Amino acid sequence: MQHLRVLFMATRDWYNPATTGGDNTMWENARYLASRGHKVTFLAAAFQGAALDASIDGLHVVRLGGIHSLWSRTLVYYLANRGRYDVVVAEGFGGSRIPRLAPLYVKEPLVTEWHQVHRDLFEAQYPRVLRGPLNLLECVAVWVNRNTFVRAGTEEWRDAFVQVGFKPDKVFVLPVSIRDDWLTETKPNPVTEPNILWLGKIRRYKRPDHVIKAMPAVLKRVPGAHLTIAGRHDDVPYERQLQSLVDGQGLHEHVAFRFDLSEDEKRDLIQRSRVLVIPSVVEGFGIVALEANACGVPVVASSGVPQGAVSDGKNGLRYPSGDIGALADCICTVLRDDSLYGRLSEGGLNFVRQFAWSKVGAQFEHVVEDVVAMRRSKRSLKPDDSAAKIS
């Protein structure tokens, strides 16, 4: 096996307090390559208290300043080190706020990380005046990256990426992964308490308000139900709206907020939940779904979550995004139907094993090696060249 020199142009590293699912996906793929002996450099934003240059998990981590200057600092760093890499993996659009437009200056083979099409996210998250410019910016970024190899997390996103302008023969399917230690624990005991969990970064497009709005209907059928909204701070005004929503509906005894959990606290909270709810308008994948399934917890997901992450009747239940009544019905079904809960719990435990870090990482390594080989042999990627598909 030839060891490659790989440069990752990410937004945040695993240890950044503001890290997101897309950031973690890039980190885990980079970490796998390093574990296989490849020389990996990981560029990301700096954060308070973090070393600007460090060796972590086998990676050479270089932190370059704030999110909004990351694009320019990345350009300067790359130009100073051009010629030292065999392949570059870059976030094309998303968390870095200002896209790097890497194809304009990167000369090595380029793999682009594209989390999702952001149109619906912009609609739910930002004021109307910003939506047009943001959609235009994404269209420009798509055009610039159209000739690169683009990772899609599911078959659904692969189709969507082709529709917005990426070349069909350049889009490959490679899912997110979950660390193997999530899969090595003994089979969890069934949860009988009617505990409902929403877990993530508090952002409008993720719609935790929908779960709160569903709670009065849930409580009519399951009086002891309890909802925990857990995760990280992001949008303070929206958090206040959530608190006001709880106050206005008199749900103080049935809704709790928890923030800044450690990984152990997060896992313990998932393990004590009967159901995890993902009501997002759109998700690139939803790693929390895998974490819940690894703990035997079924997921109730909106239609904004890819079916590749939550399959109706297999590892969870699905409902039309924004339909509060249907959301309440799904939650109540999982809380009250022990037979269904058992099937979904078992189905989730089986489903999640497809996404083990060691398995997905190996697929990513094959993709990177193939991309380098294709450049050297001047041949084109065919749709079935990539082994990075999970059915």
SS element count, helices? 12
Q: Which series of helices and strands comes N to C?
A: EHEEEHEEHHEHEEHEHEHEHEEHHH
Structural domain tally:
2
What characterizes the major β-sheet?
8 strands, mixed
Average pLDDT works out at 93
The CATH topology of the largest domain is Rossmann fold
Helix content: 25-40%
Q: Would you state the CATH class of the largest domain? A: Alpha Beta
Secondary structure category: alpha/beta
Shape: globular
Based on CA atoms alone, the radius of gyration comes out at 21 Å
CATH homologous superfamily classification of the largest domain:
Glycogen Phosphorylase B
What does this 3D model show about the protein?
This protein is of the alpha/beta class and 391 residues long. It folds into two domains: 5-177 and 356-377, Rossmann fold (3-Layer(aba) Sandwich), CATH 3.40.50.2000; 180-353, 3-Layer(aba) Sandwich (Rossmann fold), CATH 3.40.50. It is 39% helix and 18% strand. It has helices spanning 21-35, 70-81, 119-125, 128-145, 155-164, 208-221, 236-248, 263-271, 287-294, 324-336, 338-351, 357-377; strands at 5-9, 39-44, 53-56, 59-63, 87-93, 110-114, 149-152, 171-173, 195-201, 226-232, 255-259, 275-278, 299-302, 316-319. The protein has an eight-stranded mixed β-sheet. It has a six-stranded parallel β-sheet with strand order 11-10-9-12-13-14, with helices on both faces. Strand 1, helix 1 (21-35) and strand 2 form a beta-alpha-beta unit. Helix 6 packs parallel to helix 7, helix 6 (208-221) crosses helix 10 and helix 9 (287-294) packs across helix 11. The two termini are 28 Å apart. Residues 380-391 have low confidence and may be disordered.
